């Protein structure tokens, strides 16, 4: 009998969208940008892009993996997204998912007073630290049920 996990599943409408998609990562970006009321950037997916989507005060970077297992945010990935957002005078938002689960990471504030973390295994409704930043993590399942308006 397989082990039961309490990890949140992907929302049904996203699962349906991904099942019909040729490029899952692109469909994932589209879905998240709509949920966060952001406009996709022209160079989405480009090496030196300005994020995958943005609005007046936030920049979204999306990361899709076809691997299953825990979704792990590495400091180098977070810092690249954060630095891109800060250069644009925007707050960073990072969405990460695989075929089983997904999360959105919202930047809250810098915290250089304590040590930094190199990795963060994402889980629902977690406020934690990655690098020298305090972040809030929300599952895509919860995000699909929320109305996002600013913070």
Quick gist of this model?
The protein has 4 helices and 9 strands. With 151 residues, it is of the alpha+beta class.
Report on the structure:
The chain has one domain (12-40, 51-144): Trna Endonuclease, Chain: A, domain 1. 26% of the residues lie in helices and 30% in strands. The protein has helices at 12-19, 24-35, 75-87, 140-145; strands spanning 39-40, 53-54, 58-64, 72-74, 91-97, 102-110, 119-121, 126-130, 133-139. With 151 residues, it is an alpha+beta fold. The strands form 2 sheets. It has a 7-stranded mixed β-sheet with strand order 1-2-3-5-6-9-8, sandwiched between helices. Strands 4-7 form a two-stranded antiparallel ribbon. The relative contact order is 0.18. The model has no long low-confidence stretch (mean pLDDT 84).
């Amino acid at each position: 009998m397989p082990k039961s996990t309490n990890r949140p599943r992907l929302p049904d409408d996203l699962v349906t969208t991904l099942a019909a998609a040729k490029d899952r990562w692109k469909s994932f970006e589209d879905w998240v940008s709509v949920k966060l009321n952001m406009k996709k950037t022209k160079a989405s997916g480009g090496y030196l892009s300005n994020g995958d989507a943005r609005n007046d005060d936030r920049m979204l970077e999306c990361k899709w993996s076809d691997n299953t297992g825990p979704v792990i945010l590495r400091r180098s990935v977070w810092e690249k997204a954060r630095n891109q957002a800060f250069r644009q005078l925007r707050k960073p938002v990072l969405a990460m998912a695989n075929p089983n689960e997904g999360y959105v990471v919202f930047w809250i504030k810098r915290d250089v007073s304590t040590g930094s973390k190199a990795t963060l295994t994402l889980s629902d409704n977690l406020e934690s630290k990655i690098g020298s930043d305090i972040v809030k993590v929300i599952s895509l399942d919860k995000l699909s049920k929320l109305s996002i308006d600013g913070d």
